[in-house]
Write a structure and sequence with these properties.
The complex is a heterodimer. Chain A has one domain. Helix content of chain A is about 85%, strand content about 0%. In chain A, helix 1 crosses helix 6 and helix 6 packs antiparallel against helix 9. Chain B has one domain. In chain B, helix 3 packs antiparallel against helix 4. The longest helix of chain B has about 40 residues. Chain B is flat and about 60 Å long. The chains are: A mainly alpha, B mainly alpha. Chains A and B meet through helix 7, helix 8 and helix 9 of A and helix 4, helix 5 and helix 6 of B.
Chain lengths: ~220, ~220
């Protein structure tokens, strides 16, 4: 963990941000997908008065499907543009993993920053406990990108990527979704930190386990 | 020769389990006859987990040794595990219909965990099908198998606790089914568990022998 490691990881991140800003392909796809889903949900269910449990579940379902549409892109685009080999020469696998992981986290954070206000407006949600809500969302983002980054790398080596990404991600992400929905639920009900304690602990444990497992496995996947 | 006797022994044990599981009184009086399914359902669920563990062990070994045989062992255990998982899901679902009145409920952690295993097995096998090159197939699918593993204890140990905090104890599925395992019931259950485990390992060994034979044939040709 020398300073060179951090610099290189940040360079990978900067490279991805720069290429993303040229086309805005991932961000557009991610946001428009989430926005369309939100509008469909709001349009079809807006007339009904939805309970808090339904609202928190819908919020995470939108994020889940939106991330399925774009998060595998970080590795798929390297394989498609044949730039993966150059990247292999440039840095150690752990460096690349760290860069890509932070990139996916940023992508999801931007998505949530755009989606949440729209969700509150469209679905007529009142959030009594914003700090808890934001903590749950932040932990959810970390866990979600922790699990999907390595699955993106796995999928980049396979043939039918789009469908496979969702198939591989779902069983791995299900514990995260259950805890994130539960935590959001607690924030919307106003149950406070005591009400969300189990969910928050679970989210932290999930993120730690997923990121460490991915860091170990990434060497094999990347060079495999 | 020894193998032959072991096969006969396994046959006798399994035949005995089937015979005694139907001839003895039902293990649980309130549920009645349907509770006999427990002699088969629990071994199936157990073998689903065992097969996944074997898959995982050979996946880790494959990443070290890179031997095709380890990759095949890993795959074959996953295929057997899928079979046991489907059987466990179906038998559990039937049992749920009899005891709780519904074929499926998401609020029962055990049903959720077996379903997750089914999804993981399905994802593992479709991942393998989607990777064209054989060497890569082994490495990538081994990585997925290891990655998916941590979710299993989450569902077995942590989920039940979280769900208890969400669901009141008087809900339909929260009802405790007390199996008072008497001597006969316990004996049949243990023999069943043992002989189905042996059946799994026999099938596992059989597949590997077949693989080796095919390999040596293709080398001769």
């Amino acid at each position: 963990m020398s300073s060179g490691w951090t610099t290189k990881a940040l360079a990978v991140l900067a490279k991805d941000i720069r290429t993303e800003l040229r086309t805005r392909y991932s961000l557009n796809a991610l946001f428009m997908f989430a926005f369309t889903t939100l509008v469909v949900v709001s349009f079809s269910l807006g007339q009904l008065s939805l309970g808090v449990q339904v609202l928190s579940a819908l919020y995470w379902i939108i994020i889940f499907f939106a991330s399925m549409s774009a998060l595998s892109g970080v590795f798929v685009k390297e394989e498609d543009a044949k730039t993966a080999q150059t990247l292999r020469l440039f840095a150690r696998p752990s460096v690349i993993y760290a860069g890509k992981l932070i990139y996916n986290m940023l992508l999801l954070a931007i998505l949530c920053a755009l989606l949440t206000p729209l969700y509150v407006v469209f679905m007529n949600v009142t959030v009594p406990d914003w700090p808890l809500f934001l903590v749950v969302v932040l932990l959810g983002i970390i866990g979600l990108s922790g699990a999907t980054t390595i699955i993106g790398a796995i999928v980049a080596k396979a043939n039918v990527r789009g469908a496979l990404f969702a198939v591989l991600s779902f069983p791995v992400l299900l514990p995260l979704l259950v805890a994130a929905i539960g935590g959001t639920d607690a924030a919307l009900v106003g149950a406070g930190w005591a009400g969300a304690e189990n969910h928050v602990k679970f989210l932290v444990a999930y993120a730690v386990i997923m990121i460490t497992t991915s860091a170990v496995l990434f060497d094999f996947v990347w060079n495999g | 020769m020894v193998r032959k006797y072991l096969q006969i022994g396994l046959f006798v044990l399994l035949a005995g389990v089937i015979y005694f599981s139907f001839i003895t009184p039902a293990p649980q009086q309130i549920i009645g006859e349907a509770s006999r399914i427990f002699y088969y359902h629990i071994p199936m669920a157990w073998l689903t987990v065992v097969a996944y563990a074997v898959n995982l062990i050979y996946a880790i070994r494959f990443l070290k040794t890179r031997s095709e045989l380890d990759d095949f062992r890993s795959l074959w255990s996953a295929e057997l595990g899928t079979m046991f998982c489907v059987l466990a899901t179906i038998s559990g679902s039937l049992f749920a219909k009899v005891t709780w009145g519904v074929y499926w409920t998401w609020s029962e952690p055990r049903m959720l965990s077996i379903f997750i295993l089914l999804l993981i097995y399905g994802a593992y096998l479709s991942l393998r099908a989607a990777i064209p090159t054989p060497e890569r197939k082994g490495i990538i699918s081994a990585a997925y198998s290891i990655l998916a593993f941590p979710t299993v204890p989450f569902f077995i140990f942590i989920m039940p606790r979280m769900m208890l905090s969400l669901h009141p104890a008087d809900s339909v599925v929260g009802k405790n089914l007390h199996f008072t395992m008497g001597g006969t019931v316990l004996a049949i259950f243990l023999v069943s568990l043992f002989s189905f485990t042996v059946l799994y390992f026999w099938l596992f060994g059989l597949g590997i022998r077949l693989y080796k034979v095919q390999l040596s044939r293709s080398e001769e040709a």
